[in-house]
Amino acid sequence: MILRDPVHGLVAFESEEEAVVEALLGAVEVQRLRRIRQLGLTALAYPGADHTRFAHAIGAAFVMKLLIARLRSIQDTLPFWQRITTERARDALAAALLHDVGHGPFSHLFEEALPGTPRHEEWTARIILDPSTEVHRTLAKFDPYMPGRVAELVRGRHELTFLARSVSGTFDVDRCDYLLRDAYATGVSYGTFDLDWLLRSLRFGVASVSGAVPPLAVDGPRGLPAIESFILARLFMFQQVYFHKASRSSEWMLITIFRRVRALLEDGTRLPGVPKALESLIRKGDAALDDYLALDDCWLLVALDAWRSVKDPVLSDLTTRLHTRRLFKTFELYGNFAGRAARQTLLERARQVATAHGVDADVYVGLDAVSDVPFDDREDSLAVIFPDGKPSKPGDVSFLLGRLRGQALERARLIFPVELRDAIIAELAL
Amino acid sequence: MILRDPVHGLVAFESEEEAVVEALLGAVEVQRLRRIRQLGLTALAYPGADHTRFAHAIGAAFVMKLLIARLRSIQDTLPFWQRITTERARDALAAALLHDVGHGPFSHLFEEALPGTPRHEEWTARIILDPSTEVHRTLAKFDPYMPGRVAELVRGRHELTFLARSVSGTFDVDRCDYLLRDAYATGVSYGTFDLDWLLRSLRFGVASVSGAVPPLAVDGPRGLPAIESFILARLFMFQQVYFHKASRSSEWMLITIFRRVRALLEDGTRLPGVPKALESLIRKGDAALDDYLALDDCWLLVALDAWRSVKDPVLSDLTTRLHTRRLFKTFELYGNFAGRAARQTLLERARQVATAHGVDADVYVGLDAVSDVPFDDREDSLAVIFPDGKPSKPGDVSFLLGRLRGQALERARLIFPVELRDAIIAELAL
Amino acid sequence: MILRDPVHGLVAFESEEEAVVEALLGAVEVQRLRRIRQLGLTALAYPGADHTRFAHAIGAAFVMKLLIARLRSIQDTLPFWQRITTERARDALAAALLHDVGHGPFSHLFEEALPGTPRHEEWTARIILDPSTEVHRTLAKFDPYMPGRVAELVRGRHELTFLARSVSGTFDVDRCDYLLRDAYATGVSYGTFDLDWLLRSLRFGVASVSGAVPPLAVDGPRGLPAIESFILARLFMFQQVYFHKASRSSEWMLITIFRRVRALLEDGTRLPGVPKALESLIRKGDAALDDYLALDDCWLLVALDAWRSVKDPVLSDLTTRLHTRRLFKTFELYGNFAGRAARQTLLERARQVATAHGVDADVYVGLDAVSDVPFDDREDSLAVIFPDGKPSKPGDVSFLLGRLRGQALERARLIFPVELRDAIIAELAL
Amino acid sequence: MILRDPVHGLVAFESEEEAVVEALLGAVEVQRLRRIRQLGLTALAYPGADHTRFAHAIGAAFVMKLLIARLRSIQDTLPFWQRITTERARDALAAALLHDVGHGPFSHLFEEALPGTPRHEEWTARIILDPSTEVHRTLAKFDPYMPGRVAELVRGRHELTFLARSVSGTFDVDRCDYLLRDAYATGVSYGTFDLDWLLRSLRFGVASVSGAVPPLAVDGPRGLPAIESFILARLFMFQQVYFHKASRSSEWMLITIFRRVRALLEDGTRLPGVPKALESLIRKGDAALDDYLALDDCWLLVALDAWRSVKDPVLSDLTTRLHTRRLFKTFELYGNFAGRAARQTLLERARQVATAHGVDADVYVGLDAVSDVPFDDREDSLAVIFPDGKPSKPGDVSFLLGRLRGQALERARLIFPVELRDAIIAELAL
Q: Which residues in chain C are closer than 8 Å to D184, comparing Cβ atoms?
């Protein structure tokens, strides 16, 4: 099969080992990803961000194909048992394609909204391992042990650690694809990096013990700018997109809606458009796989629409605001305001304002605090190998990365409805 | 307001006259476009093609903003009454944003599937003119006559014909945006053209009668390549995307599904997930505006999913195939096979094969014939004005366009399920 | 070796067979291409067009590398003797890199200015075959017969005709690179095409005689748009760049300057800055290879500068105009004016105007007529192979190419100094 | 005038105040920039880097045009006397176009090679102020005081400090253009930044004293990523291009060549191809403006070629190596080796190796140490203005810039001919 992808251009899977990709694309659980947006509600902030998990899954498999080609071009120095065989390549391609197959509606949002229920990694494993799924049967047709191996790989476990980490690690094929794809769809141009150079600069490092599997490394200083631009692309995407105030606000609203639905259901209220899986997740903390797979963005959007007319005024109000993009406002906490204690004080004062205005502070006022460490090589990362063979940590040899190492990027924001904005800002200015 | 668009980069609407754009984006009928894909089922062929009518609407308004700026920079030669006032600019921006607000689920597909019901242009007019809509009320707040004027503009009527044609004409802002956006989302790189040069090369032509409104023209030969690349971009997009076999096949399947639903409903069969508007459209040929606006891609996808389990074997089969992307196959008719009579003969033979295999030919075999004339300036088009002031038709002075003028691009394909492929091809090869 | 190219991105030549590229780049005759602009005087029209033959030579070798990889992935169907061996690959890479090594200052301009002297193809062959050059010695070190084989390949002769035509044919690596590179440097964005798809769609056609070498073909209809966009890219580049009035005018001036230098030298006038090779070419129609290789853009620009102060008023005037970009004006002949007879009449009338103004018409008035056939597959071109194995000519199956086939793009212009413009235009308007 | 630029797309200068750009482009001193490469010898490392100062000059003027448009859209809050009048706009456009008109052959290289002679800024001032130049006469035709004002602006002096700093400051039009242009030509994709957003986010800050001219600031946090990406683009270009080992090595060779030429001339040796200006600069430390303007890349390349055959073995050897790109090798000093004292010790040891091999260490061994501070806002930079009107330093509010502030990027390398490589590396490894 061959197709045109806006991010990678010509994408072909044609060799014998690549046939697994085409076979898996025919599975209903993979086709379901067409109905799950990669970036949840981010399209409310970036109108182009309607791309799906399906396109990303193909992209990740394609990056794996490129990576496998690179690994094969440098594996002469490895003993035979450490090389990429046809079987290992097939497993890796399948794992790359399936790494996110368990995502619920609006991707990460769904599991954040339902704490205590299985996370998407767990659903992914179930989909791969459950004999009833088309994904499982497709893999098992290649080899009965393949589902098990692929599930392990997706969890980041493989005897070739470098292969495991290419599915789940700092520079894995998932990140390589989603950074480029999210940047492309949102138009945030500085969210890109040089994938070709990054792949090209890969080489094998030195095994910790003689005979052990060597880690992947980059050829420095040539490979260093490729790593730097990758880390920066990620940093920019967090600053500009993933932590964007409208994304965060809408996600916060959705989570609040789910919390409300949960409370109503627990109270015995009947709500329209609640599918089996949701009810089950809320009541029992888990759901049947079949039912879970029936959930997708469309189901959720239709349900949100239906809940606009329920009797519960809170649920009706919140869903109406979200449906018509009347998002809650945010007030970002900088400097002295951003400390942990200060935040709580400010939240408390905002809640009091709400109460004074007759608004339920538990539902309508919140604090959203997110954090990411864009780069840290102290525990683990690609080493940089110099011409003399000596490996270094990227942060030790990169001007830029040395300064970013271990530093946390944080954003804290108060969240509240527009009608409280003036009052809350006035209160906080005191 | 200012936002980042992957196609146009920085998109800002900040002046007083542009405030209408932000106001309209808050209307629920415009927000609904977030749930209507620009290219229907094309994502089945191009995995990136999940962009929505909402992003396109903003893009069209932005191109209008650029166009207005250009018109103002050249309008010194016009009498005052022919110039772009603030009011006209506001009307034009609103018309550009709203030109497609009446589209149903999956855009053009919906109206093709329900012949005899109002087309999207009619729904657009209703949305603008009906006093109950937020769109109407937003416009009327600016000026009570504004809804009427905008509706006229969307229909391509305005005293300044050049303004009318910029909303609906050969080089209108709709096309300017959708060509670039569809190319961007699908990755079909040759579907682009040079919008900056096209706008920059615009000038006013010579009015047919002294005192009349002059038509727009391009400054030639500088503007000619911009027109050529626009026409070619459109031609390539038709060949590569709009007439793509998987797009056409899936659209044909959807239309067949609708026809089946119609038949079942007329028979009195009860089906799940059929909204009021659809039932009404099928039974009475029309629907209430409110009900129509409740339709979007999500509703349709959820309904298709629900119909997979109905008793009717045909509806159940077709929806299952579409849901899992088991698309009908196509056999393209070239050369001698493509003539009108030959096509019918071939269709008849394919139908007989189906019947011989116990398959209902009325449902499972079809002929899809589409046609587009990429360029024709014999009736109307931008004139090219030479340094000596003489206007020419583009086809008279362009090497390329002279050869394309009036030529029809056609595609004819037999459509049938995969299980009939070998038998039908064998039959046709006889 | 690995380098960063603005057109192709990461360019690497690292395998054993590719070592020839790095070796040849060290040859002084190849380094000389750094001082020869790819597009002659075109930078006078497009300020970005300062790229050199050196960058293009590397680019052509890189496209050859991509082509070889594609050929190897499809050559299983060929008998062993028709496959791409290491030796053939090395020859092809060398031929791609060296195909234009014989160009003189400002590329094509130099040979046009000196009719009757060896053309650049001849100089290329001499450089490859003359045992005194570093190019020759580098090739001979690989294999004493290699210079001869490479020279043949550059001439388009090889037992594998598809390899020969990839060095010199309708879709050769030279064109593939220069179209992309010239478009990149000038910013003429529609001068691009989809190289990846063009390469990817290549397959072997059917040999004319059983056992003969099959021609290359493209897999249609998938490959058709790639061919179409290639042909159109070329057409656009001719219209926009290669036939641009300022390029043509400056080239016409340079040719006139050379003609004057020739006349002066033949008269025995001594001029500064005339290198041996030029004198010899003018006097004897040929030059020693060593002397020829001393010529480059810099030498020519320095000489033009020096000639500004010679006594001959014509040479001094023309070089001063060119040095300060006071280019001759052009008057394009369209429609009735463009016919062969009409042109001569108009030229005659323009010459009379010049004479009436006391200007030497032989030097200062000219007619520049250029022509190119963007597409013609009647004699030879890539065939398009359909799923059923039937080959067709592209023009028979492409909507676009069918309409362009054999059509000539022509431009005819009168050329004259700015001070005659008004008088000549007045005369022609009569 | 309107032209196509590969970096900025459509570049037009058409208004009355912009006419100065077209007028100045006709000046012989500006046309001379066509023969001066922007990046000196960098094309030896990046084959695409043959772009000229001429294209950059136009680009800088175009960025100024964009900046002026932005300033005008926000200047309502300024008193009338602080606004951009037609005259000020014209001065600023001229200053942007002319800011580097005084550069010598290979730009910065020439002045580095001739310490003690006037720097390019001084030559720029002379060209603008000397009544004999076409540049001067062109400006004076607009207004006799214009040359003086433009010269002041180029030096970064103007009553509107924000205008002065846009010609010469941290975010001046020079940098804005050269970063984008150098990135485009070399293909170093991460050397780009978002010019549109940077311009769009500009606003006026708060004047230090009431009534004083306010500084420019950016609207934060929206403008922050634009500044960050600008700073990073610059950092990447330094790391990847400006400090590239092949660029540095070739520049070091050229400087050594100049030093040798100087020594030979001072000894009374006669050398071919030495123009008046060079002789004068070497002997007297200065040259006549006319003579200086005769210098360009071509003259220098022709001279280097001529010097290959002089008797002096050192000059002949060095020029031959440079001509055929047999560049000196570099050994980068990291970590402990990079300290100031360590460097000198290593240099001394490398010199001893050279001497032991009978090579003149003064000529053939060198230490190249370069340094740049990518970002420092402690003295001066754009402030970031928050919604509440409070200005902050970028480093105080940017996660990234806070970590880069004041940090120096350094590169130190030993430089030596290839034949000493093994011996020197062996010695240093001890």
A: 6
Q: Are residues D9 and B200, on separate chains, in Cβ contact within 8 Å?
A: no
Q: Which residues of A touch D239 (CB under 8 A)?
A: 225, 399
ipTM of predicted assembly, 2 dp: 0.94
CA B88 vs CA B160, C192, C214: distances in Å: 10, 39, 64
Out of A194, A232, A332, closest to residue D232 by CB = A232
Using CA atoms, how far apart are residues D414 and D421, in angstroms rounded to an integer? 10
* β-strand partners of B332: B413
The mean pLDDT of A304-330, rounded to a whole number, is 95
Q: Report CB contact under 8 Å: D50, C52.
A: yes
From the list A6, A188, A299, the residue facing B4 with the nearest CB is A188
The terminus-to-terminus CA distance of chain C in angstroms comes to 64
CB A262 within 8 A of CB A279: no
For chain B, list residues whose CB is within 8 angstroms of any CB belonging to chain A: 3-7, 9, 25-26, 28, 31, 34-35, 37, 43, 46-48, 50-52, 54-55, 58, 184-188, 294, 296-299, 301-302, 305, 323-326
Kindly list the distances between the CA atom of residue A4 and the CA atoms of A28, B38, B51, B188, D244, in Å, as whole numbers in the listed order: 22, 18, 16, 7, 36
pLDDT in tens, B290-317: 999 999 999 999 999 999 999 999 999 9
In this structure, which amino acid lies at residue C75?
Q
Tell how far CA B414 is from the center of its chain: 24
pLDDT score of B288: 97
E strand segments, B143-220: 202-204, 216-219
pLDDT in tens, A73-110: 999 989 999 999 999 999 999 999 999 999 999 888 88
Residue C368: phi, psi to the nearest 5? -115, 115
Give the 3-state secondary structure of residue D402. helix
> pLDDT digit string (tens) for A111-142?
888 888 999 999 999 999 999 999 999 999 99
Pairing of strands A383-385, D2-5: unpaired
* Contact partners, residue C127, CB within 8 Å, separation at least 6: C29, C98, C101, C102, C133, C135, C136, C289, C293
Alpha carbons B38 and B56: distance in angstroms, whole number = 7
Q: Which of A179-193, A286-300, A341-355, B378-392 has the lowest mean pLDDT?
A: B378-392
Burial of C110 from C-beta contacts in 10 A (0-12 / 13-18 / 19+): buried
Q: Is the pTM of this model over 0.80?
A: yes
Q: Which residues of chain C have pLDDT under 50?
A: none
First to last CA, chain D: 64
Instruction: Write b or e for each residue in D173-200: b if 16 or more Cβ atoms lie within 10 A of its Cβ, otherwise e.
Output: bbbbbbbbbbbbbbbbbbbbbbbbbbbb
Measured between beta carbons, which residues in chain A are less than 8 angstroms from residue C222? Answer: 2
Contact D246, D327 (CB under 8 A): yes
Tell me the pLDDT of chain D averaged across its residues. 93
Q: Using the beta-carbon criterion (under 8 Å), do C9 and A196 form an inter-chain contact?
A: yes
Structural contact between residues B128 and B135, judged by C-beta atoms closer than 8 angstroms: yes
Question: Could you tell me how far CA B250 lies from the centroid of its own chain?
Answer: 17
Identify the DSSP state of D34. G
Between CA C45 and CA C58 the distance in angstroms is 25
CB contact under 8 A, D302 and C305: no
Q: At what angle do helices C146-154 and C134-142 cross, to 10 degrees?
A: 120
Of residues D234, D271, D240, the one with CA closest to residue D46? D240
Residue D228 with chain A: CB contacts under 8 Å: 236
